[in-house]
């Protein structure tokens, strides 16, 4: 059995803990704009999930959203934080739902960004398996060439594209493949939504083609009292494509 590990992280600011969980196949660096923008209000900590960034994992196996959530809880233990505001984008949102199921007493509030609560369809699961096999065989470059065009708004900022590309090719192929299989096996979180009783902010890029805004709005409406903010001029990487809008929405939410 793979045991939980405390993760590497980057920290800025002071005050109550706000913990950021990145998407696939990225790392803590995607949160740089929010670390800078929210440091006055919170101790902002962006983790590297196992195998990503500085959280090295020489033997990636048995990855699951539950294991990632347990890693986040172990990291909070190390930080001496009983509770945190949690923010996750896309796969980071899937981890956030697992954290809610497994460690809800440790959550003060949730910010969900460009994510969804549904499990993969059967076709989607097969797609994950194909992608994992092709990454193990051919590495991440070719896979990312296919994924990257779907991650951004219709007129992407080349600097953001390049920053994301650098993160996307960084993880070892075995880690990216293990992530994909973990996402394939994640449970549906829809049934959990009506029971979420902490404050929730949900931000979704207006031009997110991977996870369309209208569906996200419907999902967010199943969470009692959730605040939904559509982020203009942004696709799936909304926190990087329109960092001011996401940071402002989070600041308003966290200081309300
Ligand atoms: C992500 O951005 O984390 C991924 O698009 C999530 C997924 O593939 O379901």
Radius of gyration: 17 Å
Strand order of the largest sheet: 1-3-2-4-5-6-7
The 3D shape can be described as globular
* Distinct helical segment count: 10
Strand percentage lies at 5-15%
End-to-end CA span: 42 Å
List the bound ligands.
Answer: D-malate
**Sheet with the most strands, sense and barrel status:** 7 strands, mixed
Question: Any low-confidence stretches, pLDDT <50, length ≥5?
Answer: none
Q: Structural class per helix/strand content?
A: alpha/beta
List descriptors.
256 residues, 7-stranded mixed β-sheet, 15% strand
In short:
The chain has 256 residues and is of the alpha/beta class.
Describe this protein's structure:
The chain is α/β, with parallel strands linked by helices and 256 residues long. It contains 10 helices and 7 strands. Strands 1-3-2-4-5-6-7 form a 7-stranded mixed sheet, sandwiched between helices. Helix 1 links the parallel strand 2 and strand 3. The mean pLDDT is 97. The chain binds D-malate. D-malate (MLT) binds next to loops.
């Amino acid at each position: 059995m793979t045991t939980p590990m405390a993760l590497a992280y980057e920290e800025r600011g002071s005050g109550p803990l706000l913990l950021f969980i990145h998407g696939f196949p990225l790392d803590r660096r995607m949160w740089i704009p929010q670390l800078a923008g929210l440091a006055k209000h919170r101790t902002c900590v962006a983790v590297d999930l196992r195998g990503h960034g500085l959280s090295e994992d020489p033997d990636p196996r048995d990855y699951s959203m539950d294991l990632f959530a347990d890693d986040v809880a172990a990291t909070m233990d190390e930080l001496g934080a009983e509770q945190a505001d949690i923010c996750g984008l896309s796969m980071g949102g899937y981890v956030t739902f697992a954290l809610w199921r497994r460690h809800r007493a440790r959550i003060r509030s949730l910010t969900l960004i460009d994510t969804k609560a549904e499990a993969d369809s059967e076709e989607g699961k097969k797609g994950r398996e194909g992608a994992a096999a092709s990454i193990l065989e051919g590495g991440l470059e070719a896979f990312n060439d296919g994924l990257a065009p779907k991650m951004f708004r219709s007129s992407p900022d080349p600097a953001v594209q390049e920053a994301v590309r650098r993160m996307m090719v960084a993880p070892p192929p075995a880690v990216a493949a293990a992530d994909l299989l973990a996402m394939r096996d994640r449970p549906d979180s829809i049934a959990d939504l009506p029971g979420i009783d902490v404050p929730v902010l949900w931000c979704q890029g207006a031009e997110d083609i991977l996870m369309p805004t209208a569906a996200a709005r419907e999902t967010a409406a199943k969470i009692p009292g959730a605040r939904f903010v559509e982020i203009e001029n942004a696709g799936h990487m909304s926190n990087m494509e329109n960092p001011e809008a996401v940071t402002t929405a989070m600041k308003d939410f966290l200081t309300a």
